[in-house]
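Appendix B, example 12.
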Amino acid sequence: MAKYIGKRLIYMVITLALIATFTFFLMKVLPGSPVASADKLSPEQRAVVEARYGLDKPLPVQYFDYMFGLLQGDLGISINQFKGKDVTDVILSRMGPSAQIGLQGMLLGTVLGILLGMIAALRQNSWVDYSSTFIAIVGISIPSFVFASLLQYWFGLKWGLFPVALWKDGFMSSVLPSIALAMFPLATAARFIRTEMIEVLGSDYITLAKAKGASGSEIAFKHAFRNALIPLVTVLGPMAVAILTGSLVVEQIFAIPGIGEQFVKSIMVNDFAIIMGTTLFFSVFLIVIILLVDILYGVIDPRIRLSGGKN
């Protein structure tokens, strides 16, 4: 296991270096300037600003300076939005709201989706099964921002049960966006659990377990559910990263000061440092989650060998 993790860590570093390189040069070819109000500055003023932030250096020098800063944990500084503030501080200050609504939405959607999928599999071809399928289709087909708008209108504006927008009190302001974000993982979990459990319940070893007198709950949880978790974990891992790091449109709708909302603003004002820093932050999170998912395979099913070798 230690050898496997060490090898994966090396691949992670190489992957992040490639992502950082690609992102850096992509920002350089985009139109616009990271200098605030560049069109309103005189050539002399613009030259002073660019010299201060190293933008007057040759492109290769800027690249090596940026990569050297990354090795020291420096994601750069915001030039126009926050006037020289560290990108790391900006991301960390925005992480809290995004993580809160993301974690709540992920837990709510996954738990309800698993329960719904299990019930549908155990009651195949019943009205519960058909209802689960309908919910899964709706949850996957309709974007989360549509659910967000409906929740905002009915539960916020019409009935006044929750704040319509603005991040005032932590939990109450997070309820509606969390429910909106929960719909997709709910539908995904229900669909995968149902499909996998139906397949597992029809296998020979389940028939053998029934012949040995195993109870219905033992068959459902100990055998069927555990084997159905592996494909679900594979899908929910990357999905969790996207949700926990902030949904761009949902955060905009509810005016949540999270990473997604800040990322959209950074694109609109050409704040390249925050765009690159957020991209790297997302990439690190995604790569770590993928590693954890691979490790979870061995925990869920000990027959899976992560480090290779002979069976």
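The chain has twelve helices and no strands. The longest helix spans residues 87-122.
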